[in-house]
Design goal:
Length: 675
């Protein structure tokens, strides 16, 4: 009885152990595949799965009965292996039935996956994806087709690999994510084309946006190339280029390959940072914030910070031995992500500053669109960080399509992006039109001022016995304030006036007209240089609008007596030196200004040279000034030679030169006017 009882207990225990073992590791029954001639067959059901890596696991005779079983159409992170990165193996025993007049060669179709992998059939490597250095855990290798060969029995194995997770990778994305299928090459090819068409169709809105951005980029680039001083146009072109380039980062539209370097950029990095920087500068110029040096300086600083950190974040994915330095990779990735993510709130600062000021509707629209687009991205991007730790699903909700219209995904992010682009293009168009109108008005003012100035430049210089007179006037690109008058003095000599009004354009030209009219009127009442300057000063008081006028008046009598009075102008040159004259305040600054006269004697053959600061302040390409020393050296040369020397050195302002030469007895008077 004891022996029988012991045997019975042993038998029961053995049976119980076998049942438990059977429950823990059910036998891997082969999946029977038949009917290949009718289409494609899914390799559904549970697959054997094991973490780790061992090449012997590819062998068909390997015993995988103790492995766990998972659904191959869902990531392993969603089936008990949250946030796992590294190698893992899938295995499935398959029996493909051979049918009369059936499929000669069997093809395997593997849909999009969230890992790189190698495929083995009966221990033989038949293909796979080549992992890119720096491949993100969320990167999706394109669907692939592999040849299994003739129908028969065997083991299909996948050796999968997922790199260390970065800051934005949730814990449930890695692994095979689609059901593999087998069939004839024709059926599998048709399936691949159909699924590819469906995937691309879902991105048609992205394609349409890219085409719009690309066309606007080309138009903007042509306009900017014709007007390169328009910084706003440059940043609009940069923004459109960055926005359009994002389509080429879409792994569905452009599946990555081992030669596609753009795959390393799909992690966010430089393209998005370049778009951010372009938006910052667009906001600065469109919202009239570029007038604040502090904002411009901080924009440059943040632009460098965000771009450097974005590039470093991209480079870290190419770090060698990324598997053995997973912790270092994740620390660096987190640090660099924070570095280029924090500046993303900068547009909110610009928008807040702009809303405190009056804006026209087009620019207000840009500010609102930029605020909505930036806030939406900042919230989604913030929620995405560390998602596998927080388990937040806000980013998934915000990036999920709002609806699907005839197979085309429509997302809020795409709508806001399109709204921002339309607002920017409209505002830039308005800005360019306004600038064109303003430029046309300035050009008209320039032409009017030039016409006024040309009228005021003496056309007929009187011939004065005993003197040879030469004048030359070379205007710069802008209308300046140079003026001069040569009148015959009552003492049979010369009354010469030369001056320079501060400022440019029509205001300067109108001031010149006032001064010239005053000089011509005063010449009938007084020949005293000091008295003329005093009267001109009184006339200019309250009319200078914050500016001033330098002026030099000389009277050269027939006997060579020279009387000079100066109101802050460059002193005349005689025999290569400046005359030591009294210097008074420029005109229009003080009512009590006194203009003392200095008296000299011109000997026969002596040349007196009068000029404006356009000669002394001529500037070459290196920024050096022509200067007083060089002016003194050439001051005895003819007026044309002096003006040409300053012009060739680097004209930066109007150039006016007058020379008066006292003639000897019997010499004929001459006049040379090159105005």
């Amino acid at each position: 009885m004891r022996a029988r009882s012991a045997a019975l207990v042993i038998a029961l225990l053995g049976t119980l152990a076998l049942c438990v073992a059977a429950q823990q590791a059910p036998a891997a029954l082969p999946l029977v595949v038949s009917g290949l001639g009718k289409g494609t067959i899914p390799l559904d059901g549970l697959w054997q799965f094991h973490l780790g890596d061992d090449q012997s696991w590819a062998a068909p005779g390997f015993d995988d009965s103790h492995w766990e079983q998972i659904d191959v159409s869902r990531p392993w992170g969603d089936q008990g292996h949250w946030a796992y990165s590294g190698h893992a193996w899938y295995r499935r025993h398959i029996e493909i039935k051979d049918e009369p007049n059936g499929v000669v060669d069997v093809a395997l179709y593997v849909p999009l996956a969230s890992c790189s992998y190698e495929v083995y059939w009966n221990g033989r490597l038949i293909g796979g994806t080549d992992p890119l250095p720096g491949q993100s855990a969320e990167a999706q290798p394109p669907a692939a087709i592999f040849q299994l060969g003739k129908p028969g029995s065997g083991v299909l194995a996948f050796r999968a690999y997922s790199p260390p997770l970065d800051t934005v990778s949730p814990g449930d994305v890695a692994g095979l994510t689609g059901m593999p299928r087998v069939g004839s090459f024709e059926a599998i090819g048709n399936l691949a084309l159909s699924e590819r068409a469906t995937q691309v169709r879902s991105r048609l809105l992205t394609v349409a946006q890219t085409l719009i951005y690309g066309q606007l980029f080309l138009i903007g680039a042509v306009i900017w190339l014709r007007n390169r001083n328009q910084k706003l146009l440059f940043w609009m072109v940069a923004f459109l280029f960055s926005a359009a380039s994002w389509a080429f980062m879409d792994s569905v539209l452009f599946p990555w390959t081992e030669t596609n370097i753009l795959a390393g950029l799909t992690t966010g990095g430089p393209p998005h940072s370049a778009e951010d920087i372009a938006v910052w500068y667009l906001l600065l110029y469109l919202l009239d914030l570029d007038r604040y040096p502090v904002l411009m300086r901080w924009t440059r600083i943040l632009a460098w910070i965000t771009m450097v950190f974005a590039i470093l974040d991209c480079v870290v994915y190419y770090m060698p031995s990324i598997d053995t330095h997973a912790v270092l990779f994740q620390v660096l990735d987190s640090l660099f992500t924070v570095g280029f993510s924090l500046p993303e709130i900068f547009p909110l600062v610009l928008i807040a500053l702009a809303f405190r000021r009056h804006m026209d509707p087009s620019r207000r629209l840009v500010a609102i669109a930029a605020f909505l687009s930036d806030m939406y991205f900042v919230v989604a991007h913030t929620a995405e960080q560390g998602e596998r730790f927080t388990r937040w699903t806000l980013n998934d909700t915000m990036t999920r399509p709002l609806s699907t219209v005839d197979g085309v995904d429509v997302s809020m992010q795409a709508i806001l992006s399109l709204l921002l682009v339309c607002a920017i293009v409209y505002a830039v168009f308005r800005y360019v039109v306004e600038q064109g109108q303003r430029q046309a008005a300035l050009q008209q003012e320039f032409q009017n001022a030039r016409a006024v100035q040309q009228v005021l430049i003496p056309e007929d210089i009187p011939t004065v016995p005993g003197f040879s007179i030469a004048s030359i006037y070379k205007p710069a690109g802008e209308v300046g304030g140079d003026f001069f008058q040569i009148l015959e003095a009552q003492s049979c000599g010369i009354l010469a006036v030369i001056g320079d009004v501060s400022g440019k354009g029509m205001p300067a030209a109108m001031t010149v007209s006032l001064l010239v009219g005053t000089v011509r009127t005063l010449a009938h009442f007084t020949q005293s240089p000091g008295a003329i300057l005093s009267a001109m000063n009184q006339r200019m008081l309250g009319r200078s609008q914050g500016g001033f006028t330098t002026c030099l008046v000389i009277r050269a009598d027939a006997d060579g007596a020279l009387t000079v009075a100066n109101a802050g102008h460059i002193a005349p040159y005689l025999a290569g030196r400046e005359l030591p004259i009294e210097n008074g305040l420029p005109l229009g600054l003080a009512a009590e200004a006194v203009y003392t006269e200095s008296v000299f004697q011109l000997t026969p053959g002596a040349q007196l040279t009068l000029l404006t600061d356009g000669v002394v302040e001529a500037r070459n390409g290196a920024g050096a000034l022509f200067g007083f020393d060089a002016t003194a050296i050439i001051s005895s040369e003819p007026a044309e030679t002096i003006a040409r020397a300053a012009q060739e050195f680097g004209q930066d302002d109007d150039i006016t030169v007058l020379t008066l030469t006292r003639l000897g007895v019997g010499e004929a008077s001459t006049v040379q006017d090159a105005a």
